[in-house]
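hey m, so remember when u said the tokens were messed up on ur end? i reran from scratch. heres the input so u can diff it against urs
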Amino acid sequence: MDNPGNNDMDELFNFLMALDKLKKVHRRAYIFDQSRNENSAEHSWHLAISLIALKTRFAIDIDFYKAIKMALVHDICEIGAGDISVYHPHRADKIHQERLYINQLLTAHGQFATEIKSLWEEYEAQQSAESHWVKIVDRLLPFMMNINTEGKCWQEQQIKRSQVLEINQLVAQQAPEIYRWMLKKIDRAVQQGWLIDA
């Protein structure tokens, strides 16, 4: 193995410190004990771990190494754009800010950021099986966290059953077994008052 020079290590240091900022991006979702909101770095790790867990349960024909890498980088754009609720009416407008940050990252750290940009673009395009499964789990995890916290995040945003059903249509199409499980939990959430029945 070649010994990296000081310049290579300095570039790596700068790149990794830039990515460390993802830990400061706070999401609406709460961690398991409701003591605080999770950050986007924690969410990305949880997403990657969840893909590994799903592999042991479901016969998913994808490149798992690629999917795990995609899971780990899919929210790096939030360092520049911040996080916005999936239910926010202007969420779609954020893509410009996200792409701007990814391009800035590539300009500043091209040696390390080229693959990140490629994986992020693939995730956003949603045209590969890997991107579909990362998105499915990206929808599933916040859903699970809401079930675990008795709909705390849903209640704070006054979310309706119809919104949860709409946002999870990819799951319905690509992972019907998972979606059927979600439907049962949605019914219970409505019964418990965690979701508005509308």
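this time it looks ok to me. The first strand starts at residue 26 and ends at 30. if urs says something different then somethings off w ur setup not the seq
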